[in-house]
Amino acid sequence: MNRLDGPARKRVFGDWKIYCGVIMYIGIVNTGYATSFFTPTIIRDLGYTAQAAQVRSIPVFVVATVVSLIVAWCADRARHRFGFCILGICIASVGYIILLCQDSVTVGVRYFAIFIIVSGGYICQPVTLAWIQNNMTGHYKRSIASAMMVGFGNCGGIIASNIFITTQAPHYTVGYGTSLGLLWMCAAACVVLLLGVRMENKKRDRGERDWRLDGPDADNLGDDHPHFRFTY
Amino acid sequence: MFLWGIATIGQGLVQNQAGLIAMRLLLGLFEAGFFPGCVYLISMYYKRYELQWRLNLFFCGAILAGAFSGLLAYAIANLDGLGGYGGWRWIFIMFVKTRPLRQEVLLISSTERASSPAASPSSPNG
Hints:
The complex is a heterodimer of chains A (232) and B (126). With 232 residues, chain A is mainly α. Chain A has helices spanning 6-13, 16-46, 50-78, 82-100, 107-134, 139-153, 155-163, 173-205. Chain A is elongated. Helices cover 69% and strands 0% of the residues of chain B. Chain B is an all-alpha fold and 126 residues long.
């Protein structure tokens, strides 16, 4: 896909995988933004204010960075993507569930929940990006996929900034509930992508896509090329 | 990225709400291409199963920024009142100072495009 003409444009914008990626990204980006809304509330409950509170948010991100790097290394080594997305979503879900039941746990446990929500979110988010990029070929398709995924996906940030209603603090039932739901919307999109690309790979193995080679744009198929295999 | 910096400084200098919204819009306009552009560039450099590690190294910059921006924002807010500007204005103005560094990194990498392995059309699974 190194030439952007009519048929190529149709192939790029008609590709369901990109839209799947957008849904995945909306779901997981929401968690990335949401943390900045509820973290101050929880740290205030711990009894810190101003500078001391800012310092308490640093270890959260340091842990998330380390965990995210470990998972990235494992994902490349295992040559696999889907399982790592779901792993991150499950870990972050536990955090949200703790925060939804926050009346029955101590404030220390709520602080711990921030760690696993942020870590879980940053396990999944880069993996979704790399997964979609792995399944796109050609300059144009990759750049458009990346722009659409990040561009539309960041609408998750709009959701995050509207669901943490100040009057609901510190329970934020709507906020935590919606974030948990969006996480699993991301998981559902991951499953759709997994099943979709597996089915497509099998079709190509059976030669059911070879007819594309006879088309007029056979030299510009990108990942629609019958010899291309998707990763998951 | 230069215009992005100007828009951020503009946010620190605005006098009313309309000005702030205008600067915010310009900031979004100039900033929007940065992240997807980086993801695209990194994905063209590396092979399929080299990408995740490299992408995460880049991504960790964003995560660690979350760790330090809060503290930096607090420290810079101590400039409150200096030169007649409120602390929140200084935050926007000072954050631009770190940007030229990132700009240089991007300039270097764009000269390497020709040697990128994923750019060669002969590898369909690249």
